[in-house]
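Researcher: Let's try something more involved. This one mixes different molecule types, so please make sure each is placed in the same coordinate frame as the others.
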Amino acid sequence: MRILLMATPVAPLGAGKTGGVTLHIKNAAAALASRGHHVTVMAPDGSVLPGVDLVTLPGTCQPSLASEAGEEFYPIPENSVLGAMWHAALARQSDHDAIINIAHDWLPYYLTDFFQTPVLHMVNMTDVNAPTTAEIARVSNRYEARIAVMTQAQAERLGGVKDPILVSFGLDLSVYEFNSDGQGGVAWAGRISPEKGLEDALAIARDLAEPLIVAGAVDDQTYWTRLTDEFGDSMDYRGFLATPDLQSLLGQARVVLQTQKWHEAFGIVTIEAMACGTPVVAYARGANQELVIDGVTGFLVTPGDKAAAAQAVSRIAGIDRAACRHAVAQRFSLPAYGENLQNWLDQALSGQRPKTA
Amino acid sequence: MRILLMATPVAPLGAGKTGGVTLHIKNAAAALASRGHHVTVMAPDGSVLPGVDLVTLPGTCQPSLASEAGEEFYPIPENSVLGAMWHAALARQSDHDAIINIAHDWLPYYLTDFFQTPVLHMVNMTDVNAPTTAEIARVSNRYEARIAVMTQAQAERLGGVKDPILVSFGLDLSVYEFNSDGQGGVAWAGRISPEKGLEDALAIARDLAEPLIVAGAVDDQTYWTRLTDEFGDSMDYRGFLATPDLQSLLGQARVVLQTQKWHEAFGIVTIEAMACGTPVVAYARGANQELVIDGVTGFLVTPGDKAAAAQAVSRIAGIDRAACRHAVAQRFSLPAYGENLQNWLDQALSGQRPKTA
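Model: All components are placed in one shared frame. Result:
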């Protein structure tokens, strides 16, 4: 099939701000290509995605809904790049057998009805914007199998969304080197923004009297200033790292912390760490509950209980690093992802007519 | 032709808040019907429009852009009635030869490209929301003659909008009784909201040592409280009046004041007053510059110059009331409106293909 993948309108692909989404798009394109599909990615101007058929559009990027959680309205900016992308998708829809949207935005869900080519949606956040959540629910009620989620925890946070298809994410394991040693420090990686809860990880590391190794793009400058003021001495900040360097950093760590304040739809860093053999100590909230097998690939602790997290870190030598790598190879590999995506496409395209109307 | 008229999503038709838009829709439907077209109006649930084929949809109404002028984003609420209306329009587009949008909202302009049935847009505000203005400009550049404006002054405030068609509004003159006497007081009518500038009219009447007769729905409660605190004694407030009562009030007045702070796209109250024989003293800003013939149907004064306005009121006996009625009968009657609408439809439908693609 000829598949059009619609990327996020929040920033160009390849920018630090969209590290997770870029990997999401890149791996989805690779997984679909490995199943014999021709994939085109549409994204904002300035996007970089080597080896992929890429179409970019000009316009104003969307403000991040992740940082504006709970807004009453979905905001459309002047000369929206999201609007331009979907006009371009309309113009070329007959060149594609399916359109897969990976943007968590009201507009693509709303526009589902306006396309002859089936539009499928991969939801990669939870309930961060009420108009968007309601529109996802509407599409799920009107069309069979058009909505996919990345974890069950995510589906539970999208209350009105009916029968979403579970499509777990997958990694290209050849990019992640298994590090059987991993005698290094305590690490944290992610976009640096309040909902990601870096301050809890910093406090846990301080409890353990060791520095926290941090990698990620600064998304919220005010928050960052506050963190460096409070924890500057005990933070070993490495900046935003592309995957080759990030996986090396994660593999050298003896444990990776995941201390989110919000309900993550998925935890890419969690499976990246495990792919390198590094166990994860995570708050038992959102996706991490499904990604970390407590006592096997890391430990789950009560969200917010920093003492319990520090205690779990002190027991981390009891986790078999090979078991971490093995868990990812089984459940979150690129072939597994390709199979999940194919099953979803098959279901959505066989039931492509509206349920009503 | 079978024409679908899309109303505003700000409030149900017939509510005080939408007095102007309700009249706009009602008269457009009547003018089109008089040309032999079958007209269906689509509007929010709760709308009332006797004698017209009306389809209503449930959902959340839009916040008023008029009161939120200058917002950086166009806001989409949860379960938007605007969204529901345009999904319904999509489902029934093959029942119509043309769709005419009278809502000043980003979404209908954006969706123009998604319809096989030509979508035409009657712009009835000026540059109150940057994303919407930019989208109007886009449609005007992509399609021939799809954008209509109500006055040249309005077109000038929509800078990037290319070659809009002038479609002046029209009144059913049988509803407005010519009052040759008009020896009453000084009146003001309109939606009570800061941009309408009621406080200037109140100050002018106070200068003249007479009460101001006021009719209109209170749209901004804080503003209203401020006005009643400052001008309560000199304000003779009659509430929101339907057209039969409003025209009687306007006809009895010896002059009607129009003191807007913003650039009105059109001045319905101005031509309603003149239709009853009552001259208008207006700030020379926006549409009133084209509706009031200075020295013939009233006086135009420098915007904000309340002393000049009071002075103009004192000279109002020099205006021939029959000339006011005559000016409306010539330029702003229902037959004239029907002819304007027909010319627009002819141009838009003959040039319905995109200019580019």
